[in-house]
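Box 3.1. Reading complex inputs
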Amino acid sequence: MGIHFGVDYYPEHWAKERWEIDVQLMKEMGVQVVRMAEFSWFKMEPVLGEFHFEWLEEAVALLDRYGIKTILGTPTAAPPAWIVRTNPELQPIDREGRRRFFGGRHHDCQSNPVYHAHIKRFVTAFAKRFADNPGVIGWQIDNELGNSHNDLCMCTSCRQFYQKWLQRKYGTIEALNDAWGTAFWSQGYNNFTQIGTPLITAAGENPSAMLDWKCYCSDLIVNFADWQADIIRKICPKHFITHNFMCFDNKVDYYDLAGLLDFVSNDIYPAGHWQKQPHQPESELAACHDVIRGYKKKPFWMMEQQSGMAGWEIMGRALEPGQMSAWAMQSVAHGADTVVFFRWRTCAMGTEQFWHGILGHSGKPGRIYKEAKKLTQTFTKYMEDFEGSMPSPEVAIVHSFRQNYALDIQPNHPQLHYVEQLQKYYKALYDKKIPVDFVQDMDDFSQYKLVIAPLQYLMTPELEQHYIEYVANGGHLVLTMRTGVKDANNLCMTEMELPGRLGELCGIEVPEYDCLLETTGGVLYGKKEYAIEKWCDIITLNGACQIAEYSTGFYKQTPAITENKYGNGIAWYIGTEPGEELMEDIMTYITGVCEIETLGTAGDGVEMMTRENEDKVWLFVINHTNDEQVYHLHGRYTLLEGEREEMLKPYEVQLFVGNKRR
Amino acid sequence: MGIHFGVDYYPEHWAKERWEIDVQLMKEMGVQVVRMAEFSWFKMEPVLGEFHFEWLEEAVALLDRYGIKTILGTPTAAPPAWIVRTNPELQPIDREGRRRFFGGRHHDCQSNPVYHAHIKRFVTAFAKRFADNPGVIGWQIDNELGNSHNDLCMCTSCRQFYQKWLQRKYGTIEALNDAWGTAFWSQGYNNFTQIGTPLITAAGENPSAMLDWKCYCSDLIVNFADWQADIIRKICPKHFITHNFMCFDNKVDYYDLAGLLDFVSNDIYPAGHWQKQPHQPESELAACHDVIRGYKKKPFWMMEQQSGMAGWEIMGRALEPGQMSAWAMQSVAHGADTVVFFRWRTCAMGTEQFWHGILGHSGKPGRIYKEAKKLTQTFTKYMEDFEGSMPSPEVAIVHSFRQNYALDIQPNHPQLHYVEQLQKYYKALYDKKIPVDFVQDMDDFSQYKLVIAPLQYLMTPELEQHYIEYVANGGHLVLTMRTGVKDANNLCMTEMELPGRLGELCGIEVPEYDCLLETTGGVLYGKKEYAIEKWCDIITLNGACQIAEYSTGFYKQTPAITENKYGNGIAWYIGTEPGEELMEDIMTYITGVCEIETLGTAGDGVEMMTRENEDKVWLFVINHTNDEQVYHLHGRYTLLEGEREEMLKPYEVQLFVGNKRR
Amino acid sequence: MGIHFGVDYYPEHWAKERWEIDVQLMKEMGVQVVRMAEFSWFKMEPVLGEFHFEWLEEAVALLDRYGIKTILGTPTAAPPAWIVRTNPELQPIDREGRRRFFGGRHHDCQSNPVYHAHIKRFVTAFAKRFADNPGVIGWQIDNELGNSHNDLCMCTSCRQFYQKWLQRKYGTIEALNDAWGTAFWSQGYNNFTQIGTPLITAAGENPSAMLDWKCYCSDLIVNFADWQADIIRKICPKHFITHNFMCFDNKVDYYDLAGLLDFVSNDIYPAGHWQKQPHQPESELAACHDVIRGYKKKPFWMMEQQSGMAGWEIMGRALEPGQMSAWAMQSVAHGADTVVFFRWRTCAMGTEQFWHGILGHSGKPGRIYKEAKKLTQTFTKYMEDFEGSMPSPEVAIVHSFRQNYALDIQPNHPQLHYVEQLQKYYKALYDKKIPVDFVQDMDDFSQYKLVIAPLQYLMTPELEQHYIEYVANGGHLVLTMRTGVKDANNLCMTEMELPGRLGELCGIEVPEYDCLLETTGGVLYGKKEYAIEKWCDIITLNGACQIAEYSTGFYKQTPAITENKYGNGIAWYIGTEPGEELMEDIMTYITGVCEIETLGTAGDGVEMMTRENEDKVWLFVINHTNDEQVYHLHGRYTLLEGEREEMLKPYEVQLFVGNKRR
């Protein structure tokens, strides 16, 4: 597309006299695209049916004159007061039964039919007006769908939608009663109209019902987006449609949402004010990019790449010189074809006054502007080559929203979080400079030498079979504690000891387990004792060989980690959460057995990542620290950008190219 | 009754084909009784008036064929959806005015007349159907009454009931205004209809009103149980009626509730997932059994004895080998005639999926099953002898729900908890192997050499007199800080300096005090300085002699602990909360003065306890640790069970018998 | 007035037989005034229109017979049940939409017209009855206005009042849309009726709207008080009207509230149970008195001076011998003409049972009574001389409720609190024995050698000009981080880099900044490295000279503190929060440059403060510790009270007199 750097722009926040100055500065910085209008319903329709798109057309035209293209956002994440005051019932209800009122954003119930009618009218008019505008290239549906909508909405409209969703899924109420295990605590229903949204109870909730609720909420959002996309697609067939995701966020199944988009976009704020650390660790950011790439198995856009201090009531840390550029190129290294910075100029008003952009409040180009300009000047020339290229990892980590939901509902151990667990496995590989794909559980694994599937808590016969066949056919599989615990309805498996049929694959049985509540444990691996956390499966060998044993608990000297040859492959079972050191050593062993290639060697804080097309491999070496770093590459590459090979300045990004091996 | 071991059983959770396998396994394990049906209303009445008891009759008959008797629970802790959806107003309202909805359990308002009508219809039909069933021996009313009902319910129905309760108590509104001290903050009422349930205020609440509210809530529950018991008793005159208590839980006055039952039952989960420690300390468990025995001054049943990991969203610790048996026999040692394990098989569905039982989800007998079987094989033969026998302690600790309520309302110090305070005194005696009774404050103390009455915060002239007479007649009494502060209405005493008339008994006055907020203090006892906590009464001697003095605060070198000979007895006053070390040393001194017998000597973690009948004394020695332990007994006993005298294996329970001394 | 010591008295809490004993004891203690009736509506009007003032008249008369005068409080902080039950809608609604019910105090919506009608009826009758009572000298309006009213009220009545308030302020909805920056997140309003109270949203709130809401709430309270005061003033022209403030409390703009009163009163509880420390540091108390004096630039009354342990459900620390007296005389030293102790006798009932007074529950005079008596005996003879005299500081700290509100809404850093920041600057001066005035930002500063204006976050052109002129004319000004960030509407400044026009005054620019979230930083001042906290402005010199530089962060070695000669004066800019040590050293430097006088030298815990009239200067030296202390005075004074010059016993208060220098 030839569009690789951009900014999120809000001309409606500023006097019209300023616009051309802004656009000139953008041009000079290397901006090729802007996103606009995703929170401007009131400006575009200040009263029912009275549309005012002129100001936006003017902005689009001005940008287009400077060669800058526009992506338009539908502003449905913030319906204006005149809608909400007329129909207060479209303000959502939370789990405690409290209404959440106008005054922020996402004060909307996405199932509400009156709200749907408003959206249909507005989005139709909006799309028609810009369908043939030469400056416009595509659309963003709503904004960060699912964000702020945590636990929402419990209203009457949602209850009816939920009941219909359940009826479609189960057909009969008897089927639902079975699937939810309503025999427990006398929770049987006589018909679907008796079912409610999960408002607070006096004590406890039904985990099977909660899993359906979370899936329903995801479906509601996917349908909401699909329905909006349909309106636009019919009117604007030449435009692409995307949406800005939020990494691993779990309010909506992003695999489903990705299905209806032309490509996926992502928002990322490594130095957000919700961080205890100055910024999110690099390995976590890398994993975010990899999972985003995985949602559609395609390159993606960064729709909001952090370019300044984040802040609402409080602020995060300032960005160090070079840090923004390193993060932007990390996005590219992992598959971003385009990087749009949030945002052009720091806003003077509203909740996000302190969410800083390329320009500060004053509008004067400063340190960040200069850094962004240097970035585009250095890398724009390569971006067209990168376009469409993909990393080609030998290792995959299995990722599933349903597992995430189920462990959200019942974490088993208070500190056990599904995504954190994935991140721990990911980090061991990242530190070894081994690229990783995130995949869905039923994906074809045949291209991977090693598949790591942590916390396969919910299990189906099909998925059991899928894992068994992968290993039988020569695959290497890592399974972990809490595998096979539940069926697809979040009911416990009862036919066999854990991990069900996968016990055969792993050559083990897990008849008991221990939760390390308020304590930690130990494992003996080789001659060394290592720390473990949260959980201990108590394992009986059934053909497998033990490669590590517990050194604590009444199950001391019983297997903690096992290895089993099965068919042409190997299945490992890790019955606990390894501490960081054990994780590193066990992954060295496993990736060694699997003969996984590493891109090079370097200290922590130095990242290596590749993108490939049919001919070439681009290698990115990124220094995420404020110190000089040395590194060594394992392959043969030619330096394209960078001062000195094997040596990195603070936050330096070096680019290499090599030939694709077939 | 010949019934000593049992399990809680939920046949409705499992396919009928499995039932007989379960019952055979139970039989083999030594099960003599099951509790069933206490959460199965929907299964028994799926629509209004359509009763389905066949499945339960079938289960009862099957069990009976194997000689296993049944206790039936009334399922009124979980009214089905068809009731709740028709009458949503019977879902309770919490203090914040939020309704608590269907979806867990206890989603019911116990004062609601519509709910009462449903219960009456159902329980009548239920009782009639099983009145003459040969497999049924008794009933459990509801389940853990008061549990989950914390702060519930604030609805209109409860408000009316509360107003009537107050009218009965006070007669006139003037009497209530006086008793509540409504002159403060202009809270006077003109009539009872102006009084509300204690919904959240803008600031503050009336402690006298709150005390009545807590008493009312207890009475509501007691009446609710009494009314249900009446229905059953009339229809099933041959059956016993019990209820499963929760140790020291304070939602209902268990002394009152015990009054309407044939015997008391208890539920105990030492390794629950709400524990910070791997399990509740043994001394706390021992105290729980002793207070349960005290509620009716009779042996009791364990209706839910933990037999596996506990868990809802998160789990507790796994039980170590032998631990379940040690806990079960601890129950017996303190007065349980029958031990019913919760539960037969770990449930596959609902909130309590991870609340483990004798069998795991797989239903295969494993480690725990084998341990349970060995337990019944070893001890069933003695259980018949134990039946009806009681411990015979020389020391009593006074326990009162009203004191508990009053200190819940105003803890005085943020970390001061009534039951914790009792537990601290109890532990000092437990560690010395001195058996203890819990008694009510107006009980006859004459059989006790020593009575410890911590936190006698609410005081009446009758109770003052009772304590004075006990000491005058030769009794030994320990009183503590915060004694005599309030009258029965939770109004402060104003006639005299603290501790009121008990000051005469103790030979002291307490004109001032200090709250050790965010700090601790010290005491000099003998030549040693000890840590103290939370509170310092500033004491003036008035005949007493000082046995410890403060070493901190502006009241340094004034009395902290005093001793006063009065009549033929002695009254000690402990003006602070002794740290563990001071508690131990001061109790050594006091029990020494009182010539209290100790059962033996052993390290921490070794428990000694006796039960006696007219002829015999059984002594239990229990190792609550995973290490070998040695001990020495002070009396003459014959070893009945146990490998080697004076030596305990991990978690071993040894049983001795001796002759009763007269 | 000849009235200098008093107590808060609640005869309605006690039997009439006790009254005369109380009054005799008061007389003996030196009591000259009582406050009564501020929570006694029900006693005075038990049913609508039926007034019972006889009891109060009797009490007033009894006191008057003993020469003790009465201040009457209007009881509008606790409307009786008969009002609330008839009009439940006057119970306030909180931000979560929950009603706050009767049962505590302040269960009222201050905008409710029905409630207004009740107040008008009652207060009129009350004032008429006592207008000519010879024992009555004045009135207190309501009680601690704003206390407990945090976030209240969000009801329909308040919404209408708020809409009218906004309409008056903005005239047109377009003006409001601009002022609130509603272009952000599509929050534009078409008319004032669309605006709501700030009930909880799904995510985020508008900081400009929140600032108006807080100002509105303050105005509502001020109007409420004004309207009550008007009723009384018309009927009782001879009586003064006051109100009991709460130091720095920010629910109402005390400068506005002071405007309608004859004098300001204050309540202070240094050893309240909400303190983590045994009591609030002396410097904080001193600052409280200074700000209270500043609200009306006049001496004030202490209406509630702590005289015993504070407590609701939990208690604070006991007062050490002498501590109450030291605190009382600290009040006097800072400008109190009269000290009324809360309260006469510890109440036996209600929420504040454990809020102790001069007498304990028993009513027997004890340690505290004796101390109070000694205090009046020592100091009453000087109080008449002190009356009307004022401190005369050379240093002022700027204090503003609007800055306080704005930083409450967006603290910028999670631990940044406006008043705490003022207190940190204050403490450095207090420790140097330098008296301080608190002033409003637009006050005339010409009498001060040094003005410290921390956190001038909201800025107007007028205020910029005011600061510039002060310095130009020879003033010394300290400005700090986060100055000039916002305009009066809480919108960010966009014309210039920070700190706007004040950058010229300070000779600097602040184009960037860093929030020290979860970390701290360092500064090099002289040759020493010091700790700094929370924030770092990144400063460009523009004429100023650097007097300290950062030693941490990517802005290491750039200016942290600057000094700029401007006109005839000097402006310092402190771009961070100095740790205690740096604050001390930098203030030593700045006060040195300004040639500020210090009263003397002494260790921490020894306070020095002066009050002056036309001729004389009284110097108070107060030992706030339990140890002996030495000190040295810098001026020439004669000892009036105190055992030994230059030496203080624990908690001793010494009084000196000197001649006024002109």
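In summary: The domain at 602-659 of chain B is CATH 2.60.40.1180 (Immunoglobulin-like).
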